[in-house]
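User: Could you check the structure of this?
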Amino acid sequence: MIFPDYHLHSDFSADCVTNINDIIKSAKDKALSSICITDHYDMDFPVLPENPDIRFELDYQHYYPTLSELRNSLLPDFDLRIGIELGITAENISHVTEFAKSHKEYDFFIASSHLVDNMDPYYPSYFEEKTEIEAYRRYFETILFNVTHFKDYNVYGHLDYILRYGPNKANNFSIKDYQDIFEEIFKIMVYDGKGIEINTGSLYKNMAFPHPHADILKLYKAAGGEIITVGSDAHFPEHIGYGFDVARTILLEQGFKYYTTFSLQKPTFIPIV
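Assistant: Sure, the predicted structure tokens are below.
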């Protein structure tokens, strides 16, 4: 099954050089008829000495008009949705909330955690002087804080993103070490009507499973969660739609019958066939 790809980056993202027209061409070549571009906007992202050229600001004054014009040119044969991946931290929640509330024209907002205590776990320095469990728990605790205090999003992205970068990746991952946190996260998210994504970006980063781990997905389902989007997190055209057959199998195994698309932040549930 070919899901609409709901997590994609273009050269509007600081870490991507792919032109939007190349994304559209690749999507069409792979028989996708709809995608959602979700470029990064991490307000107040620190300039890190490890990568001083990366600043996750979004030129949103040009972003939406550019994609909107392109969307109109593609209709009716191709359905382009316009979203943003919002980087959430305790420090920027008020700013992100103000932005999201004032930009209802967007179809879709992903909330994501890319920083922990102002540190990016992409870099090994985050894991110094912490056990792996301590490092992972702290990351998940920040997600709990974020979903408690930030409400203007549709799905939370790559919930266990940190497993990409830990010293042992997911080799020692056990849900029992974090179950209490995830149960609280999902209680809040389900009550708020929020969803999560299946993010297949981990598969082309040599991990054995999409984000989140199946045990986390199982907890979301047990909490009553039903809102699921599927995204590749692609930064290059060749990764668009990557591993969506794997995502379909996992969703069906966990008892999900529908995936979700969004228009003006309103969900539509589509049967998984």
